[in-house]
Every structure is written in structure tokens, then in C-alpha cells.
Design a protein that fits this description.
The complex is a heterodimer. Chain A is built from no helices and 11 strands. Chain A is mainly beta. By secondary structure, chain B is mainly beta. In chain B, about 40% of the residues are buried. Helices cover about 0% and strands about 50% of the residues of chain B. Classes of the chains: A mainly beta, B mainly beta. Chains A and B meet through strand 4, strand 5 and strand 9 of A and strand 4, strand 5, strand 9 and strand 10 of B.
């Protein structure tokens, strides 16, 4: 039972444009959401997070939006750069360190 | 430099031959966990540990064992590996007051 779903396995955008990665979850107990970025042959690295008491968190070019009523979050990257090409994982936890991860979305940013 | 290290990075073995993948962190983190990554399934938690001598099952613990005798180390043991354990394995750690995990570089295991 996948509690965190990333329905788009891949996304391709042009350099300079906006990348929007989506994530849906089913467990209403989740209170913390994170995005990780993964390059080939490396472990995932933490990118940005958001608590369930917020609906937006921004860090430079990266913004995460949380819509609790729809159980949906999204990661916006503006402007997208070729170095952003990676696999992005959405993750969620419920009042603990235990994480549930989505299957990942491979982002390709074309020069 | 804060890091999580895993060894070996690559391993090819045969069914039934016991193996251990080591994991070590230098951040004095209490919480450590093991994940496996499979295509279309993302990262699934195998086991986790809240502190020394405290371990618990994650979502996919069958066929795996762990131990936490020291705070910095959290080895993953496959007593009798099978081909369905062919996967990419990640160790991760975090402080209990934090939620973002530090991941190791991964171990690619192939069981023939």
C-alpha cells in the first residue's frame, strides 16, 4: 500500500522554464513532507521540507506547496537549470522519523 | 565532513551466501535506517533503529537482520540472500529532533 505517490515517472522541461513535480498522499496523519534529490550513483540528498501547519515553503529557486484538503504537494523549480536534472523523491512522515517515499520522478532539464 | 558511509558499494553474490553491508555515520545521530530502492517502488524501509540496542521492522523486513551495538554503526545482514533481494540499498541517519535524513551513497547488490 503506497501511501505516497508520484504519478509521473518522468518530466522534461526547457532550461529557464518552471518545473513542477507533483506528489499525492493518502495518510491524513502525515505531518511533515520532504523532497529529496538523487543523482546517479549517489544517495538522495535533502532538498526542502514543509510542515503540515504551513501551505508554502520557499528556498531560493525551490518552493514546496502543500494542499492538505487535496492531500497533494508540489515542488516548483524556477528557473530550471540543467544541473537540476535528477530523480526527485517526495517523502512524508507522521510525527516521527519514519519516512514513506514516493516512487520518484526523473526530471530532465534541456539546455 | 558529516557523512554516512556504506561498504561495499557494489556486491555480486550467490543465493544462500551470508553477507553484511556496513553503515557508519559520524554525526552522533540517534536514528538510523535501511532502505531498498526498486524501480517503480521508490525507497522502502527495511529496518530502523531509534538508538543503541533499539531496532524495529520497517515495511519490508523479511530476509534481513540488523544490529545496533554502537551508535555510529548499523550493519544490514542477509543470512541467506535470494535473487529477490537484488536491489539498491541505502543507509540513512538523522538526529531525533530533526526529520531530514542523511543518506549513504548506496550499495548495489546482485544475488545470482
Amino acid at each position: 500500500d503506497q501511501q505516497v505517490k508520484q504519478n509521473s515517472p518522468s518530466l522534461s522541461v526547457q532550461e529557464g522554464r518552471i518545473s513542477i513535480l507533483n506528489c499525492d498522499y493518502t495518510n491524513s496523519m502525515f505531518d511533515y513532507f520532504l523532497w529529496y534529490k538523487k543523482y546517479p550513483a549517489e544517495g538522495p540528498t535533502f532538498l526542502i521540507s514543509i510542515s503540515s501547519i504551513k501551505d508554502k515553503n520557499e528556498d531560493g529557486r525551490f518552493t514546496v506547496f502543500l494542499n492538505k484538503s487535496a492531500k497533494h504537494l508540489s515542488l516548483h523549480i524556477v528557473p530550471s537549470q540543467p544541473g537540476d536534472s535528477a530523480v526527485y523523491f517526495c517523502a512524508a512522515s507522521a510525527f516521527s522519523n519514519d519516512m514513506r517515499f514516493g516512487a520518484g520522478t526523473r526530471l530532465t532539464v534541456k539546455p | 565532513e558529516a557523512q554516512v558511509t556504506q561498504n561495499p558499494r557494489y556486491l555480486i553474490t550467490v543465493t544462500g551466501k551470508k553477507l553484511t553491508v556496513t553503515c557508519s555515520q559520524n554525526m552522533n545521530h540517534e536514528y538510523m535506517s535501511w532502505y531498498r530502492q526498486d524501480p517503480g517502488l521508490g525507497l522502502r524501509q527495511i529496518y530502523y533503529s531509534m538508538n543503541v540496542e533499539v531496532t524495529d521492522k520497517g515495511d519490508v523486513p523479511e530476509g534481513y537482520k540488523v544490529s545496533r551495538k554502537e551508535k555510529r554503526n548499523f550493519p544490514l545482514i542477509l543470512e541467506s540472500p535470494s535473487p529477490n533481494q537484488t536491489s539498491l540499498y541505502f543507509c540513512a541517519s538523522t538526529g531525533l529532533a530533526d526529520r531530514g535524513q542523511f543518506f549513504g551513497p548506496g550499495t548495489r547488490l546482485t544475488v545470482l
